[in-house]
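Case study.
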Amino acid sequence: MTEQQQNEIFNSWLKQHRAILFKIVKAYAFNHQDQEDIFQEMAVQIWRSVPKFRNNCAVTTWMYRIALNTALKWSVRERKHQNGREGLEHTAYILTEQSDFKDERLEWLYEQIARLDKVDRSLCLLMLDGFSYKEMSKIVGISESYVGVRINRIKKHLTQQSEKVS
Amino acid sequence: MEFEEMKKIWDAQSNQAMYAIDEAALRNRVIAKKAKARKLAGLTEKIFIGANIFAGSIIVVASVIKDKWSVSGLIMTAFMYFIAGYIVVRRNKRLKSQDKFERTMLGDLDNAIATADYQVNFSRSSRYYLGVVVGLSLTSLLEANSPWWVVVLAALFFILTYIGAKWEYRTFYASQKKELRSMRDKLVSMDNDEPHAGFDQAI
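After joint prediction, the assembly is written out as follows.
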């Protein structure tokens, strides 16, 4: 695969499925600089993964796996090296938040997702995006029944939290 | 709020643009990161291989020029060439093993843990290696009847290097490995869960 082909595929993936990355960014990073950093890291990892994609799963499944894994590893690394960002302050910002899109209930939901542990956060995002247990099991690498147990627990937790608010 | 309602709120955002992307800036960033990743890959190994070959060769060249051969110098040269070769073999093994992991998050975590394991072992072995080099270097200095303060300075330098290596090991490698392992444990553990029919006990 030439670099040009790789770029073309990456651009089309990003154009069609950018919402996946945005959701993960919001669930794992809580200030603009971190969101920039995690987004860039995910974009780089997805770009690098393009030649390895063999069409044996949906592009969304592939992107979710790479992006979630990057987010998990980013959060481990970031906690250790809070000052170790690669001169991000000297680079142009890539993401600009669209201020006209605000929904309090959605913000609340993101807040609840952020309070889950890192692994449950991944499963919660996949669940909300309508992935089946089988697909989640393939992305995360745990059995379907195990996914089911954790998803039930997350649903129960979210519903309880919402009852507390109301 | 019921879960179905949460799902509706969630789905509604997919039709909106949460962020705008500056695509040109992103492209530049991808290119820059790619170059950096290539540069950093295995940098420690390359430095070790190069430094050992260089240092070993310096001892040989100096001995040839002076026509003066010491036992400790010869042992150190052989040791340094051996270590360089050993790192090359281990590096190749590490690079080959990267493809054997499953393409899942768990597989990726296992891969990251294997890499962290490798770094931890590499860092630990480096300290043992330093011990051998210290022993041989000090013997060499004593054989050459070097002044006492040179021996003390060399010993001090090696002690500081050892402390630095240990700090690096604890701060970066060991703690990162511990965190990756705890993340993996979280992924496969069922702490505080109620019994569930059909749960895969094998996990």
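Observations recorded in class. Chain A touches chain B through 65 residues (CB under 8 Å). The longest helix of chain A spans residues 3-28. We will return to this complex in the next lecture.
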